[in-house]
Amino acid sequence: MSERNIVESDLYAAQCKEISADTRKMDDILDAVMWALHENAEQFFQVLPNRNLWLVKTDSFPDAPALRIWFSLTPDVVELLSIERLGQGAPIKVKVRRHKV
After folding, report:
1. CB contact at 8 A, 37 and 76
2. Average pLDDT over residues 12-21
3. Contact, 25 vs 94, CB < 8 A?
4. pLDDT value, residue 88
5. So where are the chain's domains?
């Protein structure tokens, strides 16, 4: 387990801003996810073995939708790639930047 810095892609930031506009509990949800990513990002689902694409899903609760957050990892950085509400059916466009290790 290693602590990492968390950075947002432009796509993630734009999507998050759009979702946050009508979600009252968004800060609470994201604070919990960011803490978990910072402490132990490997606990979440790696989409494909040997690929640097990971996924966090949150549950819905009053005033907060369920979310899907895509991210990549390096030893020092968690890069947030995309965020969306679950159940909306909209396709996600994710650009994955490959990191040389």
Report:
1. no
2. 87
3. no
4. 54
5. 5-85
Measured distance CA(2)–CA(15) in Å, rounded: 27
| pLDDT, position 67 | 92
- Six-digit token string for 7: 């950075």
Give the H/E segment covering residue 96: none
Which of 3, 59, 77 has its CA nearest to residue 68?
59
Task: Yes or no: say if 36 and 43 are a contact pair by the CB < 8 Å rule.
Answer: yes
Give residue 94's pLDDT. Answer: 46
**How many Cβ atoms from other residues are within 10 Å of residue 69's Cβ?**
23
| Mean pLDDT score, 69-79 | 92
pLDDT tops 50 at residue 55 = yes
Q: How many other CB atoms are there within 10 angstroms of residue 29's CB atom?
A: 22
* DSSP state for residue 42 in the 8-state scheme: G
Task: Tell me which of 3.30.470.20, 3.40.50.1980, 3.30.2310.20, 3.40.30.10 is the CATH number of domain 5-85.
Answer: 3.30.2310.20
